[in-house]
Amino acid sequence: MSIQLSAAVRNARLDAIETAIGASAVLKIRTGAQPADVAAADSGTVLATLNLPADWMAAASAGAKAKAGTWSDAAADAAGVAGHFRIYATDGTTAHLQGSITITGSGGDLTLDNTNLAVGQIVTITGFTLTDGNA
User: Fold this and answer.
1) Number of domains, the chain
2) Residue of 27, 25, 119 whose CA lies nearest to 74
3) For 15, how many CA atoms within 13 A lie in the half-sphere containing its CB?
4) Which residues pair with 103 in a beta bridge?
5) pLDDT of 5-60, one tens digit each?
6) Is residue 1 included in any domain, yes or no?
């Protein structure tokens, strides 16, 4: 038998993630596979750096929490294929969350309108949702 949590508890856990990371988090899109865990050193080349909105996630509802506002970078830093992302505290160095990247509709943890980035191109995050388990 598995443990089940109410929607209120799952929502509280999700909202705590944004609180712990802090306002104005930094998202970096990187090449290659993500590190073994979020405590491991950064890997891959940084393709784009996005300063997320001050309130970067919507309030959790029904055990899920979606991105809020516009997540975009006016000009990619480097050329390459996006492989993973990391979200950092405002300092841009303390990693708190990481996951896979795919093109919109392909099921990645974070989705982009285009995963093959060129220097200077606009980078737009089309989807990002955290879903809590134990429903």
Assistant:
1) 1
2) 119
3) 11
4) 112
5) 999 999 999 999 999 999 999 999 999 999 999 999 999 999 999 999 999 999 99
6) no
Q: Do the domain assignments include residue 112?
A: yes
Ramachandran area for residue 19 (φ above 0: left; ψ -120 to 50: alpha; else beta)? alpha
**Domain enclosing residue 73, as ranges:** 7-131
Q: For residue 134, which of 17, 8, 10 has the smallest C-alpha distance?
A: 10
CB-CB contact of 46 with 77 (8 Å): yes
Residue at 103 is within a domain: yes
Domain-located, residue 62:
yes
Q: In the chain, at which residue ranges do the beta strands (DSSP E only) sit?
A: 26-31, 46-51, 64-66, 72-73, 80-88, 95-103, 110-112, 116-117, 123-131
Say how far apart CA 58 and CA 41 lie, in whole Å.
29
Residue 120: Cβ within 10 Å count? 11
